[in-house]
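Retro notes (design track)

What went well: tokenization of the new backbones is finally stable.
What didn't: we kept losing track of which sequence belonged to which structure.
Fix going forward: every design gets posted as structure first, then sequence, in one message. First example under the new rule, 109 residues:
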């Protein structure tokens, strides 16, 4: 019965069980909500994946610099990460940075 449930994130116990909307570890007492696989979408609702190519839809100021990522900048080979800025990428002319998916649009190559 516990074969499909993930182990406890605190103690790695495999004896987790469901209690209403929570998962519970009987060994350490930790309770958590099961997280569904996060789907990252661009500004128009297209699903993004690692390796996609996107374009920037708005001028973006680079924090700590006077540089600006201009509208229409094409960014190739994105990598999805967890967090507020959910895209890691290398922007041409700027370098490595994190972007929010709300400011990009997926393009087909």
């Amino acid at each position: 019965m516990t074969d499909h449930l993930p182990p406890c994130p605190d103690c790695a116990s495999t004896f987790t069980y469901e209690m209403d909307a929570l998962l519970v570890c009987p060994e350490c007492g930790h309770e958590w909500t099961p997280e569904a696989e996060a789907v990252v979408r661009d500004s128009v609702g297209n699903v993004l994946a690692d390796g996609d190519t996107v374009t920037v839809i708005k001028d973006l100021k680079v924090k700590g610099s006077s540089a600006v990522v201009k509208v229409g900048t094409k960014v190739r080979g994105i990598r999805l990460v967890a967090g507020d800025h959910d895209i890691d990428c290398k922007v041409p002319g700027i370098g490595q940075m994190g972007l929010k998916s709300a400011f990009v649009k997926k393009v087909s190559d």
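Added context from the reviewer: Residues 24 and 31 are 5 Å apart (CA to CA).
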